[in-house]
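Figure 2 data, in text form.
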Amino acid sequence: MAAAMFVSCSNDVLTEEGVNTDGNKPVGDVAYMAVKISNVNDRHNAKSRTTDDDFAIGEESEHKVKHAQFFFFDKDGVYVLKAGYIYDPDNDFTDHTSGNVESVTGKNVVVLENMNGNNYPEYMMTVLNAPNFTAEATLAETAEKLVDWQGRRNEEGRFVMCTSSYFGDGDNHDNTNYYVTKITPNDFKNSFEEARNATDPLEVYVERLAAKVAVKVSSEIKDAVTLEGGRVLYKLAQSVAGEDNDDNNPSGSASTELYVEVTGWGLNATADQSHMAKMLDLKWKDNGVWAAWNEANKFRSYWGQSTAYGKSDFDGVLTYSKYKDLTKAVGEYEYCNENTNTPENITTKKDDGTVLVNNAAVTHVVLKARVCDKQGNGLDLISHRGVLFLSKDYKAYILNRVKTLYGLNCYYYVNSTTEGNVETKHYAQVGVDDLKFIKDGEALGKVQMVLAEESKQMYAKKDDGTFEEISSETLVANLKAVQGETPLVNYNGGASVYYIPVQHLVAHEVDNAAKNDEGYYGVVRNHWYNISINSFSKVGHGVFDPEGGNEIIVPDEPEDPYYYLGARINILSWRLVDQNVDL
């Protein structure tokens, strides 16, 4: 790991070389403390007990540190001071390549100035890479303080870290103020040299505020087709309705085969802000699965209360992406703030026991895809009552239904020709080119089918072969009657998305885990969620305007997350979480 160049955190007399470089002595009593900072890895799996394989070492950029702050509080949690930090080039951060700890400093010296007698503080909060962060009046207010950095990093692109939160006993930890390090009298030294040479530095464990999500598509998927140029298409167990498909054949089976191409992805419904420290609920300490998800011997826990926790209104709490923002390539990763909640705010249980997830409430991957034919040509599709049609075929199908049920005595004037002194006016029956799709509501792909030119004069053919003007209202009403109330979904050029809610409590890792258990869905800081797509079976959600791409993606109704694809999530030390998805 590159050298961690810490800068002074209290005043100008503290520098990388030591103290008192300006010849002045600190005012008041001075205490020194040897501190060893360890960055706990992201955890891999949500298992009841972990091994080193459950963690993953981050990249160098993910644990690089440039700035450290140490905030001290008294026994009542009242803010006392921010201490200066002396950089020691001989005790820099070093990388670890195994298990729970990702990187660690040697002995580094913290200087507490302007102390009153020996009434030393009792708690210390460590904050890395957040030079502008300031403490509040109390420890609780400081821990709960809302913070945000673009991309969950500071202005220099470094990841913000804070003391790890967990439950456990020990000289340097208590369960009331679980998000800080407890200080004992033995941790204070009387001189810089004593602190620097101490064999028992104060151990501090920190974790990143960010969560990390990666997406890949399994290379083991069957019926994949690789085109010239490297494009990969995946065959769907679904097809476009053909001549034999009608309301009596709703399965969507026909001779036209469908394929899907993954074109990008992005995160959606991400939390705008984070608490500086990870918030826990004291009752979790001895409660069922939460007790198993707390490992004091690894100085960490695997659940928390985000800024969205306990809320059902997410305005100003969660951010939603636009279609044009789905620019991540498969194999890449993205970072976000933690987003956790209680089951009643993110899931719906149907009468038959099926649990649906409200994707608008949980952080999820939006997988960008194109529905194609076998040659990779994007298809304009309409989904109606669960049956897929080519758009032009759907228009013809509906017009045929209108003709059968109500008659289709509707024409438009085309042109006139003159032969001799006789003028003949030509009319054409309303056809597929006279219909169009328009946006219907906020959902990405919901549309209505309407007349292309509603103000255009319409005619009816009389028994004598002549034509008379009529209103288009009857045809408009008949079109609506035939289509019914079921909304249409448009796939413009095959544009579509799949929603993959990120699972925290992965079903295969906890016995009898249910989708409406707390913790089943969520993202937690310092976890790496590795999502692998194992199969595709049906098309996703249609997109009406992929070219503009300015529509904000807010899933409008709960759905079964496994209806479209299969995925597996890995939580990474980064703690790693694997999630397999079948789409």
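Caption note: Residues 213-279+310-374+492-582 form a domain with the Immunoglobulin-like fold (CATH 2.60.40).
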